Amino acid sequence: MAIPVLEARACAAAGQSGLMALYEAMFTQYSICAAQILVTNLDFHDEQKRWNLNGTFTSGI
Predict the structure, then answer these.
(1) Who's near 31: CB < 8 A, 6+ residues apart?
(2) Which of 3, 27, 31, 36 has the highest CB neighbour count under 10 A?
(3) Measured between alpha carbons, how far is 53 from 42 in angstroms, rounded to an integer?
(4) What are the angstrom distances between the C-alpha of 34 and each of 16, 22, 31, 59, 60?
(5) Alpha carbons 39 and 26: distance in angstroms, whole number
(6) H or E segment at 56?
(7) What's the total number of domains in the chain?
(8) Contact 9, 40 (CB under 8 A)
(9) What transmembrane ranges does the database entry give (predicted)?
(10) Is 60:37 a contact under the CB 8 Å cutoff?
């Protein structure tokens, strides 16, 4: 049985905060700051969005 798209997205969003909390707890042990950047497939197909992502990734490093 297929899960409706909106339901799947809601489940993913609910799990995302728990996943980030786990990453933060694990990386904190090594004094490493964890972060996330959420993107979609469309973000890679638009030139302006790619430039924005590049700037975001660069400033995060």
Answers:
(1) none
(2) 27
(3) 12
(4) 13, 10, 10, 14, 10
(5) 23
(6) helix 47-60
(7) 1
(8) no
(9) none
(10) yes
Q: Tell me the pTM.
A: 0.58
pLDDT of residue 17: 87
The pLDDT assigned to 30 comes to 96
CA nearest to 21, candidates 36, 10, 11: 36
pLDDT recorded at residue 1: 60
Specify the length of the chain in residues.
Answer: 61
Find all residues with CB under 8 Å of 24, minimum gap 6, and list them: 34
Cα–Cα distances in angstroms (integers) from residue 56 to residues 8, 13, 25, 36, 52, in the given order: 27, 21, 23, 11, 6
Taking 50 as the pLDDT cut, the residues of the chain under it are none
